[in-house]
Amino acid sequence: MAVIEVHGLRKRYGRHQAVDGIDLTVTRGEVFGLLGPNGAGKSTTVEILEGYRPRDGGDVRVLGEDPGTAGRRWRARIGVVLQQANDSAGLTVREVVRHVAGFYPAPRDPDAVIDLCGLSDKADAKLRTLSGGQRRRVDVALGIVGDPELLFLDEPTTGFDPQARRQFWSLIRSLAAEGTTIVLTSHYLDEVEALAGRLVVLAGGRIVAEGTPATIGGRTEESTVSWRDADGTHQVSVADPTALLAGLTARNDPQLTDLRVQRRSLEDVYLDLIGEAR
Ligand SMILES: Nc1ncnc2c1ncn2[C@@H]1O[C@H](COP(=O)(O)OP(=O)(O)OP(=O)(O)O)[C@@H](O)[C@H]1O
């Protein structure tokens, strides 16, 4: 079932066409990645889907409704983690999570959410005393406490330490396994690679590539095989490395070392894609 369906989405700010004809379909339980350089149109697109920004053109359906006209019951089915941190600095973590839970008809247990987000030790701490990464975890807690069917995460792990990022990734995976649909905007390519089942790359308000993290931009079309032997270091790019590998290992050359097969990294592919789009 399509949770998000977008056809021909357009948005202009004055003379600047920020979103220039986007088509998207996101199905239930998917983690869908949105990548693109600064100014690509990601936030504009996501804010239109969240119902926070009007569009100029195109058809948009989110959880079966038009976000431009949908009401409070629709909003309660959506969770949002925005880029900017919340500002209830004088409240404790528990107070703010409980408070926000009160806006939803069927929220998750606030203490369980605090625990899930790795904030149990800080439950009674005032927000102003938290570190940047801890504040960001509170944002995530507030985004999921309403038990949303659809969760928008805009650069969720900015400021997280590596361990907190891994904890967050497992939280996202478990939410997705429970059926929550997740739209993830991130500048961390490893994060998108680890979490997203599908992704699009936006540049200049258009989709320049679409696919899975493993195949996008022709990642699997070419591999680089490198090795070392008595003649020095070798590096060959091939479409299918199988025959070359078989040939190399059949040599039984004791001096053959450092044999490696590498696919292009998501970062290489991404930089090419946005470079071509400029
Ligand atoms: N309220 C606004 N008024 C005028 N121009 C805007 C407004 N919001 C965004 N823009 C412009 O629209 C373009 C797309 O912005 P948007 O915030 O959607 O990009 P983004 O992909 O989310 O970027 P980032 O990665 O920096 O968050 C940019 O050129 C931006 O300057």
Which short descriptors sum up this protein?
single chain; 278 residues; alpha/beta; Rossmann fold; 6-stranded mixed sheet; 3-stranded antiparallel sheet; 9 helices; 12 strands; 31% helix; 29% strand; binds adenosine-5'-triphosphate; transport; ABC_transporter_ATP-binding; cell membrane
SSE diagram, text form:
Layout: E1 2-13, E2 16-27, E3 31-35, H1 42-49, E4 57-62, H2 72-75, E5 78-81, H3 93-101, H4 110-116, H5 132-144, E6 150-154, H6 162-177, E7 181-185, H7 189-195, E8 198-203, E9 206-211, E10 223-229, E11 232-238, H8 242-250, E12 257-263, H9 266-277
Parallel strand pairs: 3-7, 3-8, 5-6, 6-7
Antiparallel strand pairs: 1-2, 1-4, 8-9, 10-11, 10-12
The site of adenosine-5'-triphosphate has 11 residues, from strand 2 and helix 1.
Q: In short, what is this structure?
A:
The protein is α/β, with parallel strands linked by helices and about 280 residues long.
Protein model, in words:
The chain is an alpha/beta fold and 278 residues long. The chain folds into two domains: 2-213, Rossmann fold (3-Layer(aba) Sandwich), CATH 3.40.50.300; 217-277, no CATH class. It is built from nine helices and twelve strands. It has helices spanning 42-49, 72-75, 93-101, 110-116, 132-144, 162-177, 189-195, 242-250, 266-277, and strands spanning 2-13, 16-27, 31-35, 57-62, 78-81, 150-154, 181-185, 198-203, 206-211, 223-229, 232-238, 257-263. The strands form three sheets. A six-stranded mixed sheet has the order 5-6-7-3-8-9, sandwiched between helices. A three-stranded antiparallel sheet has the order 2-1-4, covered by helices on one side. Strands 11-10-12 form a three-stranded antiparallel sheet, with no helix packed on it. A hairpin with a 2-residue loop joins strand 1 (2-13) and strand 2. Helix 3 (93-101) packs across helix 4 (110-116). The longest helix is centred in the middle third of the chain and has 16 residues, at 162-177. The radius of gyration is 22 Å and the shape is globular. 35% of the residues are buried. The mean pLDDT is 91. Residues 13, 16, 18, 36, 38-44 line the site of adenosine-5'-triphosphate.
